[in-house]
Amino acid sequence: MGRGRVQLKRIENKISRQVTFSKRRTGLLKKAHEISVLCDADVALIVFSTKGKLFEYSTHSSMEAILERYERYSYAEKLLTAPETETQGSWTLESSKLRAKIEVLEKNIRNYVGEDLEPLNLRELQSVEQQLETALKRIRTRKNQVMHESISELHKKERALQEQNNSLSKKLKLNDKNNEQRNAHQPQPQLQPPPPPPPHNLAPLTTGSGSFEGAVVVRDDEAAQAHTISASMMPPWLLRHINQ
Prior knowledge:
Strand content: 5-15%
Low-confidence stretches: 201-218
Structural class: mainly alpha
Helix content: 55-70%
CATH class of the domain at 12-81: Alpha Beta
Oligomer: single chain
Radius of gyration: 61 Å
């Protein structure tokens, strides 16, 4: 026999009501997840129990983003359908909301720099600390990325300068080699011998008639040697005649 249809009314039994709430809440969250995955829809689900306990579900986008999107759509729809007097009131309400958001943002900025921390409880302080740690991780990651990029760029410049230096060294060696080959093919200049020293004594040479025919250079030692040789070659009777 089939299951009967459940009558929709408040369950009077407290225990049964709590069990039904737990089961239906689980099924509702499951259905919300299924429709978000199957239909690629943004879903936000908020459930408060009878004791005031909050149960929520949102898709990959945050709950705040979905609620802000809902407020924009509902506000635009009110502007289209509301009369002018209500439009002025809605503008006033919107401005008050914006001022409240600005105050919250300014308060968060003061908390991030370590100011106005006295009103915060332990849970709020832990939330601020977690947000700061997440921000520090992102900053350190970006800093390391910038440092690696800078080091890589310096390595590239170093390699380029090294290649330029090697190219200049090769050109310099080739230029020196060409100069050596050019100097080797050129004829070497010959050295001229130094001129002889000037003569010390000049002896005039005369003929039998007394006319000058030339001059003979005779050194003192060479003249003495020549006189000795010529004297040894003369006969004795001629020598006696010369000495007289």
